[in-house]
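Request from the bench team (R.T.):
"We need a structural guess for the complex before ordering more coenzyme A. Sequence and SMILES attached. Just send the tokens back."

Command: build protein-coenzyme A structure.
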Amino acid sequence: MTAGVAGTPAWAVALLRDARVGRLATADAAGHPLAVPVCYAFDGARVYSAVDAKPKSTRNLRRLRNIAANPYVSLVVDVWDEDWSRLCWVMVEGRAEVLTTGPEFTGAIDRLVEKYPQYRQLRLDRQQGAVVAVTPERVLAWRPPPQRPVGIRIEPAGPEQAEVVLQAMRRGFEQYRGSLNPPSSALDETVEDVRAAMARGGAFIASDGDAVVGSARYQLRPGHVYAERVAVDPGARGRGVGAALMREIEEAGRAAGYAEIRIGVRASLPGNLRFYEGLGYRTLASGPHPRGPDYDMTLSKDLRTSIL
Ligand SMILES: CC(C)(COP(=O)(O)OP(=O)(O)OC[C@H]1O[C@@H](n2cnc3c(N)ncnc32)[C@H](O)[C@@H]1OP(=O)(O)O)[C@@H](O)C(=O)NCCC(=O)NCCS
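Reply to R.T.: structure attached below.
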């Protein structure tokens, strides 16, 4: 289970922050559900929605009674479009608490007034009323996977294709010859090395017509899938081939029952960091490179909560 919003893809965190309306579901002690539209503010840790004090029945509102009886709630924020390639949603499962006084209560009111000019006119009250504060315990997010780049085929590679995987990798990594310190070990790999690495997981080959334009490998390690040697021919870059190779590896990991995927990136190659961040990866750890002056960064992505 993902605690809080850690591991949630950046687009989903942005949607949760910026969307204007969410649907909050509560349930009473007997489990009878209630879903209501809410205006809310998200401060990066908790989601706040207000119950105005004006109607006399405020304190007795059904959602507040439900939360008092059963703190487990769910909030969904979604984007609807007749073009289904634009659909997306974020679902927060967590525990709710009702605040009526104190700095967190007034801070939440201020946030809500800042986000919704309408609350200024309604004069959302800092003295009375109630705020529902939701602490996320799990965040699920979905949006359709991007279309595969036009004309590109991605296929799993068997051991007999180790040479093809190796040659594609060499073309992709050739640019690092003489320019990385310490040098990239990718350029020293033999076909036996590649075959042995593929035996610990697998590999994919990207083709454009008859031409191989990229390859990537992965290992199934205890607790996570490790992607490596993701390589696209210089002439085929910027068309989504690298992203498509990563998606195939992620799918292979999910299919094998894995919840996490990792990859190592050098700190001296910030473009690669941006490539993986764009695919929903986040830095898990970093440390000095064992062979020289660079730093190694380990990036990670939760395969259960994100389909990018
Ligand atoms: C890294 C690499 C695999 C990317 O392949 P690619 O096919 O060009 O990547 P894509 O076209 O799928 O790019 C996907 C996204 O990442 C972005 N991206 C890719 N490379 C980037 C870079 N160097 N800097 C910033 N963004 C980059 C793209 O702009 C694209 O963004 P978008 O979805 O917003 O359009 C390729 O540049 C490569 O083979 N590099 C040499 C080998 C290497 O370093 N591999 C990684 C080892 S960790």
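Two things stood out. The radius of gyration is 24 Å. The longest strand covers residues 130-142.
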